[in-house]
Amino acid sequence: MLTSETVTRDILTHHLTAFGNNDLDGIMKDYTAESEVLTPEGPLKGLAAIRKFFEDFFIAIPTGSAFEMKQLTVTGNVAYIAWASESAVAKIPMGTDTFFLEGDKIRFHTVADYRLAE
């Protein structure tokens, strides 16, 4: 039997792999029309807004960028990551994401990073 923690780890692994590959269609499979990404600029609701968010993020962190996972914690249906990344476009010494799952989809996703332009 799959536990909520196992499902959360599986979805997180899929999400991080798709993100590292800049696989926009793969990332979007983790969300639904009801999903929300909560950012310092405000909430992004629905698939179109979330897709645009990741399109923009891939400009700062294209495939092949340096990426360091500083922390990964999964508890039940919640996953938290702290990370750092560097590309030709941006240096991000600290970023965090928290994922709240409903079933096998991300329902709420918080994201924030400290970004230095290169």
From TrEMBL:
From what superkingdom does this record's organism come? Bacteria
Any one Pfam family here would be SnoaL_2
Q: SnoaL-like domain location, by residue?
A: 14-107
Q: What is this protein called?
A: Nuclear transport factor 2 family protein
The protein's organism comes out as Pontibacter diazotrophicus
